[in-house]
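Let us practice reading a record.
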Amino acid sequence: MLKRYAEFCYDQIGSYALEYLEYFQDLRPQLSKANIEVSLPEYVSMIFFSTISAFVFTFFVLGTLMTLLMGPSGIFMGLALSFVFSVGTLIGFYLYPSLLIKSRASRIRDSLPFATMYMSTLAGTGTSIPEIFAIMAQEEEYGEIATEAGKIHKDIETFGMDISEALENAANRTPSKDFKELMWGMNHALTSGGSLRSFLSERAETLMNDYQRRVESFAEQLSLVVEMYITVVIVGSIVFTSMSVVMSSFTSFSGDRIVMIQMLAIFIGLPLMSGMFILMVKGMAPGGIR
């Protein structure tokens, strides 16, 4: 879907985007690490086309709405808001690869201890490195690691790279520091004649210890989040309900209005706050326990 949209944008304004390509060279390695299968000229065209489209669309909608509400002066308000939306679109597309890189690095780090342990088992059975990555590429449970393994296997089988070169390419394009160190370590074990099984076993143990430390840290943080949830959501809702009843006697609000505010807080506010806490916990949790 993204590839088709990028190609469409390049067909529309590609020649114009090429003139400004030098200002976006820092995005080239980010696109590779983010696994965005779009060339830099196509992505820059997509940035420009989306920004222009956002400005035109929001100016038409908001300009019309503001003119109806405020009169002729609403056009300037619509213009200002359209400019803000278009700048936001530009910044969003520019930052999107870096956000994907962080997300992929986090997912790789979560799955890497288990994937390395599995690779160690395969190496112990005498499986060759190309076959190891071919098998790993089919294991969808490892997520981004399966994607990286598929690229390595493709480099070896399709592009004819030797194993060492394929591992170096994988180390240079991965967004994960741990996976990069794993690739360089496997390459060193291969070129120096060391035991791949021993290296993977030791590396899996190191990664698993790091994973256990993160789980223990998460357990401590989770206890604080639970206390915060009880204080803010549960106790806070009780206090709010009681205080709103008390305050109603000192204000001009009618009883029906107080009841309406309480219902909005309970049936809308509480679910929203609970959802925010759930998202926060999911973001804190290491992979495998979400």
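A brief commentary: The first helix runs from residue 2 to 18.
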